[in-house]
Amino acid sequence: MTHDPSTSPLIDGPERTALRSAVAAFAKRYGSDENTAELWAEAGKLGYLGVNLPEEYGGGGGGIAELSVVLEELGAAGCPLLMLIVSPAICGTVIARFGTEEQKRAWLPGLANGSKTMAFGITEPDAGSNSHRITTTARRAPDGGWLLTGRKVFISGVDISDATLIVGRTEDARTGRLKPCLFIVERGAPGFSYRHIPMELAAAEKQFEVVLDDVPLPAEALVGDEDAGLLQLFAGLNPERIMTAAFALGMGRYALAKAVEYARVRQVWKEPIGAHQAVAHPLAQAHIEVELARLMMAKAAHLYDAGDDAGAGEAANMAKYAAGEAAVKAVDQAVHTLGGNGLTVEYGLAKLVTAARVARIAPVSREMILNFVSHQTLGLPKSY
Question: Cys staple from 252: which of 192, 277, 325, 327, with CB 3.0 to 4.6 Å?
């Protein structure tokens, strides 16, 4: 029996190949253009923003595997959309899996076509990577709704989002312990405010601190089951890691393409500089590492879309780690290949030196991923 490689979850089949080609051609028209609002709107009209969302709510009926293709190809063309990680991947996935029928009808069509955007708020000033230290709390209001109080930091795109999916904690009536829950908080809600956090980072999307001061929410603002806890939270965090890998890999591919093009034509001595192994081999190594990280990302997306949340958690963390490392190496090598030109505005690579490192830090640091793998995969004891 002959094996058909197109059936492998790690290799694009015909439909995904067509999607990749279409997005690449679309993204090429924008290149490194900073007009992300126009790009977002057109991508929504073409159906790219909602490829992972259910067809009955205006999506493409695909999964995170398809959405990661969209983000990777946008990044490879120099115009990644950070909010793809947040709005359709995290928020759209959580609502599609756990939301009420009313929540799905209210939000999913808009998230799919780009007419609505949703931010995601989990990180807090004092909690860091420890989600058990989240202090944003929701308590029952006399009218049966909720009052939400707390602070969030480094929340992307709050200023352009219609709502923010906030990770808070409610008290378990049986144990008295706090458990994580998710709430949709619309931007104009009383007590909801945000402040821009200046970043030394070249990105169209801004970062914000969010303050929730007894924000009154209706009962229906709660997404999913109040007792589901971490299950619902990680339904959003696993896609976040996979999509962060796609973001990093697109950036790495973009940088390598610039460097390879330069090395082919830049001539100082007799031959183009790309003929010298000192230039060619590091670029080849960076390319190999990008491709290896892409395979792990594809594995993670396949496991997640197949419903294997535990397997996807491990693979998503590994994919995010590998992609972050590969992107940093690719960008650094690209800059060094161009020499002084690598630091000019004309070639657009210097700004990626900082941007590539975001994938090492967010949404979870590489050190915490190594902790996860050492504890969960290798079974080593914890130090914390």
Answer: 327
